[in-house]
Amino acid sequence: MFTFQKIPVEIHYKVLELLPKESVFECMLVSKYWSTLAIPAYYNTIYLSGTNIEFLNSKLLLDDNNQDQQFAYGSLVKSLISPEFHSTVDANFLHYNSEPEDIEEGEEEEEGEEEEEEEYFLQTVQQQDDDDNNNTIASDMDEESFALIPVFNSKSFLKLLSYMPNLKKIDLFTSAYYEFYMTILASQGSKYLQHIEDISIHAAYHELHFTVCYQFRHTITHLEVYYATYYVNHLFGDPLYFLPHFKRLTNITLRNFERQDLTLFDILAVCPHLAVLDFDSNFDVSDHLVRRSFKSMLDTMIDIPANSTTVVVLHSHLKILDLTLPKLSSGYIRYLTHHTDVKQLHTLSITLFDSHFDDWIKLNSIDTVTDFIKRLSKITHLHFCTRFVSRDGSLDELVEANCFQEFLDTVHVFQPVYYETYSNQQLTY
């Protein structure tokens, strides 16, 4: 007879992680076996809503023995997150519009069911009904409203972290007290966060965030950084100076709206073991500079001629590559065609926000583009996007999309390739 116990524990965990917190809580009450499986999933992520902060503050006022009892499951917490309050401007699309657009607020989710009082040390479900006022940008508040938002003081925040020794991710950017918490982490957090891998941010540039990440450079694996000059721990430099200090970095998002000659290869040269790279640049770097940057990267790795046509795999750990550029130079095409492992690189997204597909073909030889598309079509998830300002209706999006499909048929690429074209008028697929 089939029993749930025969299913591998790892699969149980994966399923439970996908369930709503309420459902996981119900699983905890089914039996001792289910409780053992569900408790780690239930406490995996803690949301610091206003209600939860008040609840935690009340428990942190208890004596040490009672605190230890209340925070018994603290070692299971992997993520500490401040709930989102509304949609914000995505820096990834700043280049596509000459004038900023108004951002509409997302509709607030209503929760009709009341939360049951729990005997466990934390409430892990986001409570939007209590946070309509709590999760608002601080600059939009008057002093009286701001003072009503629940907050940890420095001592209680550090005490809370001490009960979560296995914390791997912190995302408090939406908190009204974000800078206050980050300042605490920058000065005293290293004593408590021994396994932190990701300190998230949802803005293009924030020097305090980078300063905090640098404090944990020996454990950080995920980093989002804006290209700028940083002053950290009496050190002064740009991200290319600081990135080699992050010894375990595997995932990086780098936004560049400042340095006109920065290339993909400048990043790969200092971070050769990346698994995920999201490179977003506002500048069209000349092919000469791209080739020079590529040669410089090769000099730090292995001796391969820059004009080599032999497929020599570089960066064998790279699994996801996301490029957002005005145009794709022949140097990038050469790298992606001849020096990437299409079995390892399972996701590639290329967004050219100042290019028409037909113009892109004209800038490169048909053989170069054919070899490029044929090789990349072997990648499991390939997304190719051209975004541009419409040329007075001389070429609409549908015509360009058809042009791309006809090209795929001509070069005998039958594997699905996701293609998107976008103008300032409308988006089509």
From TrEMBL:
InterPro entries: F-box-like_dom_sf, F-box_dom, LRR_dom_sf. Residues 99-116 have a biased composition (Acidic residues). Transmembrane segments: none annotated. Residues 97-116 are annotated as: Disordered. Residues 1-46 form the F-box domain. This is F-box domain-containing protein. It comes from Helicostylum pulchrum.
